[in-house]
């Protein structure tokens, strides 16, 4: 989530509208195996390789055979031990005139042997307990049977396999030793043939064919080796779909932005910098990644791209505008924050802080009904200028006039009074069809959508989990009417499959009970009561399901959902099915010490909950359609350098963080893919931060953890300035289950993350580096600083995506 205050006035819509000094793994493994050496002697073990790349060579189980042409003997090398996700190298030796030397696997979980001849490598598989894999090396004499020898590799469960990155204020993306960073698509990079390279001096235009700004949520969609069809297992060629949430306005123009009325060219550039990009990525060999400027499926989806509406609100009076008199069509998507991925190869992009982009003149209030005014206020559409004042760029061109929601015509079809209702949705995009029209899925509700994690389980209905990122807002779930059919996974009419699962179902909102249980409250017309009058809001009575979908926040208020500390990303553990929700923070206007609740239990330093926390829940029966769940708080953010008293340790640093894993304001979250060892058995959870509380000691960061499960901690009482709050907490953090993996450059947010199916490349978004600077005094020069050079003082920073690889080719994080 971006928080800015440029000279042309921007609000992100975040307004309260609702009243290592640890022992090494290597040394521990060595100690363990010193006690178990006898177990391996029968297999010929004389040496061990631990926890990193295992090189098996020299003496092992020798075989000998052959006569004509001389004796041939082989050695398969020594037995070894490693852990899941590590690269293991098997090297055999042949003495004599042997031929056709090679390796094969005899026992254990099957692995892919890469290479040929005497030396091959493999990635150690995920295992639940220490497991032996036996490999055979053989060579054939000129006459006679092949001569063979075997070696055994003992694989242990995956562990965090990197040294924690320290706090950093450097203008570079810092990663652990043994890892490398490649800067990929950056703000302004051309993604169509014939488009010039980005000058980065404010003179560039045509962002409809360039990478947008403020890189946010991303997903890598695999492409077949040839053609443009999906291949879920491709780790060498794919489509990178990435959100572009917002802009750092000062760097887009030669001398910064002009005051209102805005020049049309400046406003168009800023508009086109928002939205989504789809770009072909290619591994040129050994994870040397580049992007293809003229990729056939490359595409920008901007606030000007045609859209269609689907679900209960489509065709309703709430969506009628001068552009769409029947309320079925719209243009564009904006403030795209987190995302979601369906089981049928489409992308979900989520519209978060759309409200601040719209202008409403003072005269508009008198022309609205009481219900309309309440809806506008509850959704934050109250600005008198609109972010960046785009509506002032033209009085006739509706690419700009539509950002003015003031009533000016006789009917809704004569103006853009309901244009704000066309935003705040989840939008489905087919990345494999560059001509397709994205679809806004109104059944999933309208609010400040952070993301939409889709959980698909065999024999169950689809579940989509969504946070509403503003103070005091809610966690939602949509459950499809249709039960998942595996045949739909490979359908070619992908958006039609989206119609099937995303247009009909039940929308719920969460209530977190004080006893560690929770209830999903249905938001269904006929069962949702009128929202009672409160504060400046009159009573609001719903007239249809379309009304509930458009005014979802009111419906959630009405049924008594639990206000949360800014719900951000939702992600699901691919093994347990547990759902994690990041709550980035909440200030004191929303969370005073007398207004905590069990799921949001902290209020301290007079700032509410400035460091945030992560809630997790497990559906009863482990089914997406469950209406009850159990929950606890997986982890609390904390600045350990600022929580050194016993009271602060007990009531702020509740998770026991230290300088190797402390963090603040969790935002992005991601579980490793289940197609590789880091996403199997005990999947890695990745946590990204968008922090303002710890930035005096470190830039924003990415952490990797091996979480447990709901209930692995227990009941806990937090004392907030003498006020007690009971809650439920997870197991404490340790060096073994949570470490800092990356620290970003100056004034950035770390957001957007995915990996290739094999887990050997991790893609991460770096958003708005140097956002506090200006065109004539940039406060960052990243990514030009990434290679260690010192750019000229005038070089402007650029949001960018990076590819992180492990130098030995192993799985990232393990």
UniProtKB/TrEMBL annotation:
Pfam families: PhoX
Disordered as annotated region, ranges: 1-20, 770-794
Chain intervals with Polar residues compositional bias: 1-11, 781-792
Stored InterPro entries: PhoX
Highest taxon of the lineage: Bacteria
Name of the molecule in the record: Phosphatase
Organism placement in taxonomy: Bacteria, Pseudomonadati, Pseudomonadota, Alphaproteobacteria, Sphingomonadales
């Amino acid at each position: 989530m971006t928080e800015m205050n440029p000279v042309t006035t921007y609000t992100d819509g975040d307004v309260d509208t609702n009243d290592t000094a640890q022992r090494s793994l290597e040394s521990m493994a060595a100690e363990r195996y010193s006690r178990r050496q006898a177990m391996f002697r029968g297999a010929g073990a004389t040496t061990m390789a631990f926890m990193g790349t295992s090189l098996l060579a020299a003496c092992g189980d020798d075989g000998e055979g052959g006569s004509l042409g001389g004796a041939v003997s082989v050695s398969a090398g020594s037995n070894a031990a490693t852990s899941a996700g590590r690269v293991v190298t098997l090297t055999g030796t042949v003495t004599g005139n042997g031929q056709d030397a090679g390796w094969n696997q005899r026992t254990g979980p099957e692995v892919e042997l890469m290479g040929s001849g005497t030396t091959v490598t493999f990635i150690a598989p995920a295992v639940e307990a220490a497991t032996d894999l036996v490999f055979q090396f053989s060579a054939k004499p000129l006459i006679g049977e092949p001569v063979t020898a075997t070696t055994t590799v003992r694989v242990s469960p995956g562990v965090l396999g990197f040294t924690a990155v320290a706090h950093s204020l450097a203008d570079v993306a810092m990663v652990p030793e043994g890892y490398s960073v490649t800067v990929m698509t950056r703000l302004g990079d051309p993604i169509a043939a014939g488009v010039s390279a980005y000058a980065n001096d404010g003179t560039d235009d045509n962002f409809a064919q360039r990478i947008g700004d403020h890189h946010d949520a991303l997903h890598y969609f695999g492409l077949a080796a040839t053609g443009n069809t999906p291949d879920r297992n491709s780790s060498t060629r794919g489509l990178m779909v990435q959100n572009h949430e917002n802009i750092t306005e000062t760097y887009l123009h030669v001398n910064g932005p002009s005051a209102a009325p805005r020049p049309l060219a400046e406003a168009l550039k800023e508009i086109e910098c928002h939205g989504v990009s789809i770009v072909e990525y290619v591994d040129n060999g050994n994870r040397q990644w580049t992007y293809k400027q003229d990729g056939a499926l490359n595409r920008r989806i901007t606030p000007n791209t045609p859209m269609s509406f689907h679900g209960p609100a489509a065709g309703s009076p709430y969506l009628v505008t001068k552009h769409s008199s029947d309320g079925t069509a719209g243009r564009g998507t904006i403030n795209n924050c987190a995302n979601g991925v369906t089981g049928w190869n489409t992308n979900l992009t989520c519209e978060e802080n759309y409200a601040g982009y719209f202008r409403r003149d003072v005269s508009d209030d008198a022309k609205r009904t009481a219900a309309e005014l309440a809806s506008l206020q509850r959704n934050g559409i109250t600005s008198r200028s609109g972010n960046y004042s785009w509506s002032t760029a033209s009085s006739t061109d509706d690419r700009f006039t539509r950002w003015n929601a003031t009533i000016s015509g006789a009917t809704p079809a004569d103006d853009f009074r309901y244009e704000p209702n066309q935003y705040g949705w989840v939008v489905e995009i087919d990345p494999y069809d560059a001509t397709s029209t994205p679809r806004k899925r109104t059944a999933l509700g309208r609010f400040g959508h952070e993301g939409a994690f889709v959980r698909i389980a065999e024999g169950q209905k689809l579940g989509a989990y969504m946070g509403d990122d503003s103070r005091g807002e809610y966690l939602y779930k949509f459950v499809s009417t249709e039960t998942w059919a595996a045949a739909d996974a490979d359908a070619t009419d992908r958006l039609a499959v989206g119609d099937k699962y995303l247009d009909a179902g039940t929308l719920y909102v969460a209530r977190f009970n004080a006893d560690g249980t929770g209830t999903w409250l249905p938001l269904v017309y006929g069962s949702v009561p009128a929202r009672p009058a409160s504060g400046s809001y009159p009573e609001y009575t719903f007239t249809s399901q379309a009304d509930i979908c458009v005014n979802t926040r009111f419906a959630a208020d009405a049924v008594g959902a639990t206000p949360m500390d800014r719900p951000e990303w939702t992600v699901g553990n691919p093994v347990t099915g547990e759902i994690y929700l990041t709550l980035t923070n909440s200030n004191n206007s929303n969370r005073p010490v007398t207004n905590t609740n069990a799921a949001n239990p902290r209020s301290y330093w007079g700032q509410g909950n400035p460091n945030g926390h992560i809630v997790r829940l497990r559906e009863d029966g482990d089914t997406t359609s469950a209406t009850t769940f159990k929950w606890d708080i997986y982890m609390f953010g904390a600045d350990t350098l600022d929580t050194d008293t016993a009271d602060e340790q007990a009531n702020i640093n509740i998770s026991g963080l230290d300088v190797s894993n402390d963090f603040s304001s969790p935002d992005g979250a991601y579980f490793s893919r289940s197609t590789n060892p880091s996403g199997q058995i005990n999947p890695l959870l990745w946590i990204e931060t968008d922090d303002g509380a710890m930035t005096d000691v470190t830039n924003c960061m990415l952490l990797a953890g091996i979480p447990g499960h709901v209930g692995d901690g227990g009941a806990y009482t937090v004392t907030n300035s003498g006020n007690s709050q009971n809650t439920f907490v997870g197991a404490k953090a340790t060096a073994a289950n949570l470490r800092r993996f990356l620290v970003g450059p100056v004034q950035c947010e770390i957001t957007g993350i995915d990996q290739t199916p094999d887990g050997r490349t991790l893609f991460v978004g770096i958003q708005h580096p140097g956002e506090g600077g200006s065109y004539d005094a940039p406060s960052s020069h990243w990514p030009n600083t990434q290679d260690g050079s010192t750019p000229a003082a005038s070089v402007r920073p650029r949001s960018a995506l990076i590819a992180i690889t492990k130098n030995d080719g192993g799985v990232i994080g393990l």
